[in-house]
Write a structure and sequence with these properties.
- There is one protein chain.
- 26% of the residues lie in helices and 26% in strands.
- The protein is an alpha/beta fold.
- It is globular, with a radius of gyration of 20 Å.
């Protein structure tokens, strides 16, 4: 099969033919229909978020089940599936408290780089390649654990289902579940990339009366407005000041920082109104720290909230987002700004890094 491999930190990635075994017990072979190009994949390439190497990269994907191993009961051949890189067990301490996003009972296994029996299904010249995030979606076919497969309606395009599986679920989850955006809220979304634009869609779906998008690329304004933003600020050193001017001097009810830059996380606390909520969904490097003045935080009764992936049951989030897409309530297809073939992956990464794209997707035959 054709796949994108990463051998060393810093790359480059390369497209090459590798070998893929048939699925073992509890495993599923998926013919990939589409895969998203995400900053998290780039972070693995650069080492900002280290991955076990060598591996096949990619974690946003959707396709058709073409074979199943013994003991598979959740999917069948012919099903359309979105791949879930953070499945939950449903019965641990966190799942019992509806904190499914914190479950690691299944994730620790699928993130190990190996399948349940401790071996990989991918190899090159007889040597194993690891499964990135358990799903390795930058390949035309992939074997995954059945726990990573969420059956989706056939009417949902693969490219839409693929990006639901990370960017969309993450942004919408930050707005709905962690930001708890409501119709009377004024919301600021900092960073109009895939996650930020999805947070805008989530805030719009929640009925927020004002949604202010902030980005350094003027090209993002049209897309942000199409997805629900009421206002757009071209980023400068006066961003927080402008938000205060637009909110009668109080600040926003909810600010969602979707880039993962500690400096921005720190300054945007000042853009939150007293009693408001700063939601951090962009993930900085593990080596970076953010510092907040606690006196202001305490006296103004502000809240800083972390938000990871869907911030809820990931499987249910994928299914629910597919349904609201079909109902016309979430224009996910407008988030896609460019489509590429797998042999254009380096160009796709370069385009993503310009900061001018929405979501780039790899499409397969």
């Amino acid at each position: 099969m054709n796949a994108v491999t990463l051998d060393v930190v810093g790359g480059p990635v390369q497209v090459e033919e590798v070998d893929l075994e048939q699925p073992h017990e509890g495993e599923v072979l998926v013919k990939m229909g589409a895969s998203g190009v995400c900053h998290s994949d780039q972070h693995s390439i650069t080492g900002q978020h280290p991955a076990d190497l060598p591996c096949v990269v990619g974690h946003e994907g959707a396709g058709e089940v073409v074979a199943v191993g013994s003991g598979v009961s959740s999917v069948k051949v012919g099903d359309h599936v979105a791949l879930n890189w953070q499945p939950n067990c449903g019965n641990c301490f966190y799942c019992d408290r509806s904190e499914h996003a914190l479950c690691r009972e299944v994730t620790n296994r699928v993130w190990s780089g190996y399948m349940a029996d401790g071996t990989s299904r991918i190899s090159r010249d007889g040597k194993p390649l690891l499964h990135y995030s358990g799903v390795s979606t930058w390949a035309d076919h992939m074997v995954v654990d059945q726990a990573c497969c969420e059956v989706i309606p056939d009417e949902v395009p693969y490219e839409v289902a693929a990006i639901i599986g990370c960017a969309v679920a993450t942004g919408v989850g930050a707005a709905i579940y962690r930001g708890q955006v409501s119709p009377d809220h004024r919301v600021v979304v900092v960073g109009a990339g895939g996650v930020g634009l999805s947070a805008i869609m989530g805030a719009s779906m929640a009925g927020a009366k004002q949604i202010i998008a902030v980005d350094q690329a003027l090209e993002k304004e049209l897309m942000a407005r199409e997805l629900g933003a009421t206002d757009f600020i071209l980023s400068s050193d006066r961003d927080v000041e402008k938000v205060l001017e637009m909110t009668e001097g109080r600040g926003a009810d909810v600010v969602i920082e979707a880039i993962g830059v500690p400096r921005l996380q720190q300054i945007w606390l000042d853009g939150v109104r007293p009693g408001g909520n700063l939601v951090l969904v962009g993930v900085p490097s593990v080596e970076d720290d953010s510092t907040f003045g606690s006196a202001n935080l305490i006296r103004m009764q502000k809240t800083i909230t972390g938000s990871y992936f869907s911030a809820t049951d990931t499987g249910k989030a994928i299914r629910d987002l597919c349904e609201v897409y079909l109902e016309g309530l979430l224009p996910i297809d407008r988030l896609i700004s460019r489509r590429v073939r797998i042999n254009e992956i380096q160009e796709a990464l370069n385009w993503m890094l310009t900061g001018k794209e929405g979501r780039i997707v790899i499409t397969f035959d």
